[in-house]
Design a protein that fits this description.
Blueprint: E1 3-9, E2 15-24, E3 30-38, E4 41-48, E5 56-59, E6 63-69, H1 85-94, H2 98-104, E7 113-119, E8 125-131, E9 136-141, E10 146-149, H3 156-172, H4 177-186, E11 204-213, E12 218-224, E13 230-234
Antiparallel strand pairs: 1-2, 1-10, 2-11, 3-4, 4-5, 5-6, 6-7, 7-8, 8-9, 11-12, 12-13
Length: 235
């Protein structure tokens, strides 16, 4: 998992749209988004029913965290790990300062991951955190459009192809939440191994989440691909 796109909404103060396709085993059932309290902090996220964590969420700390499995390149999995990556997501959502949280967090013996974060405490910030199993790579990103495809599932060649799809899509479309939802439900070449909604039998796209923030509101949209019911919740 996953495929993630992020872009700012230039006309709206601190506005952005992040959309995530979760590619996962069918055994990893997800509960739809709901409100939770973690360390006294209000959060909204879909929950991994098996592990109890999440891969995407919002918190009242004016923050969005979205997880992709893997780092810059594929890795060899260890037999076991100390902590689930889904717990890291919730910890970073609850933190007062994401910079201090990342600086002080113990990532030792956690499986490699990539986190895309948006923080709007002091202006809009796009951030990327990559834990490669030994070193954390944490940086601010330019406030422009971005796309990520998780390394365990997509080769560098596949990533490049998908980046080109996204570039062409932006050139052809007036970008909006609806247009990005269309990209995440239809982009591809008719090859289920690489299309944005992918299916390789043992793993496939299970659901789509979208978070849109404008100056007026912030909301989460969620669709489970088994029944294709859409849920929208305002935070």
């Amino acid at each position: 998992m996953c495929t993630v796109t992020l872009l700012p909404i230039s006309a709206k103060k601190n506005g952005f749209i992040l959309t995530s396709n979760r590619d996962e085993s069918a055994e990893r059932e997800a509960l739809p988004p709901d409100f939770y309290s973690e360390n006294g902090i209000k959060m909204l996220y879909p929950k991994d029913k098996l592990a109890g964590g999440t891969w995407i969420g919002l918190s009242e700390q004016k923050r969005l965290i979205c997880l992709l499995n893997g780092e810059f390149k594929p890795h060899v999995r260890e037999t076991s790990y100390r902590l689930s990556r889904g717990v890291v997501v919730k910890d970073l959502l609850a933190a007062i300062s994401i910079d201090e949280a990342v600086e002080n967090y113990n990532f030792k013996n956690i499986e490699p991951f990539t986190i895309v974060a948006v923080d709007w405490n002091s202006g809009l910030r796009f951030l990327e955190l990559v834990w490669d199993g030994k070193i954390k790579h944490f940086k601010d990103l330019d406030l422009k459009s971005h796309i990520w495809s998780s390394s365990p599932l997509y080769s560098s060649e596949m990533k490049t192809i998908r980046e080109q799809w996204f570039l062409e899509f932006q050139n052809d479309k007036s970008l909006s939440a609806e247009a990005l939802w269309e990209f995440h439900t239809s982009a591809g070449i008719g090859d289920a191994n690489i299309d944005v909604i992918m299916d390789r039998g043992f793993v496939k796209t299970q659901n789509i989440s979208q978070i849109e923030k404008t100056s007026e509101e912030i909301k989460m949209k969620f669709m489970d691909l088994k029944d294709r019911d859409i849920i929208e919740i305002e935070f």
